[in-house]
Amino acid sequence: MESRKKRNIQRKKRRAAKISIFLSLFVLLAIVGAKITANIYAKAVQPVVSTNCNVISKDEIDKQIEQIKKINSNPKPKLKPEDGTAKDNDTKDDANTNTGTKASTTANTSTNTESKSQDKPKPQATAKTTAAAQNKTQTAESADLGKSIYSAKGEKTVYLTFDDGPSKSVTPQVLDILKKYNIKATFFVVGSFADRNPDVLKRIVKEGHVIGNHTYTHDYKYIYANVNNFMGEIKKSDSTIENIVGKECVSKVIRFPGGSFGKKFDPYKTKLSSEGYKYVDWNALNGDAEGHNISSEKLIQKAKDTTKGKDHVVLLMHDAGTKGTTVKALPKILDYLIAQGYKFKTL
Fold first, then answer.
1. CA 346 to CA 155: how far, in whole Å?
2. 318 tagged catalytic
3. What is the pTM (predicted TM-score) of this model?
């Protein structure tokens, strides 16, 4: 009897030990499973970080293309080139007060001189070649975002644009002012400067502004040597912007360094259009590219003079490191535009 009791006791102990081991394993598996579930849930509910990139939507682009087609279908008045000068490669973007440059005027004069010097008259263009030329012109013009802006109807609108940044000294001050006024702008960045100042580019995006492409080097001699050089610069700048702030922030809107005034830029415009890009110049400016350290009073007055009588304005300014007086003038320029009833938009 005693030996049977001992065997029963030992059997119960072994059973209890097995149960204890099973329960320990069960608890361990439950803990591991809970951690795995928590990690999966954390990833699933992780918020998406917004880049606040205001890239033009497809619907907006379609509307703009329709407006441009209507404009192109109407007879175009002959325009005389406006006179203007570009003082140096660093400040060529806006030496003229409206649109056009001396370069375009000189090019036209040169063309007229060459045509007069030829003894033999040129053969008349055939209907086929004329149609091809018109088609090229329309293709180049279809990429002009300014056409739809300037011909728009409705409330007074101004698009603030800043070229040649980002810079460490001026761009942050411009952003501070825009933040204070709760106004968004479009920054046409030079890719090489974005490489040098990635944190400033990230701040531009974070605060809801739009980034446009202003080539990678801004080197007139190289980028305007041929179309391939130009497009290579655009693509390189796109790649730089994408690497810093993401592909969703790569806008298809570019600005030609110095502007796109003159027929010589038609091949560039046609190529841009074929690759889905838009370009925009300006119809008003503060004149900060006409020299260094221009007084803020002159910049304010220039902005007033060139926006006067215009309902739809693309205003050119600069945020390069040498444009400290633009920072001083900006609040009063904004105050003036607000007082004139303008609404602020980005490209």
1. 15
2. yes
3. 0.67
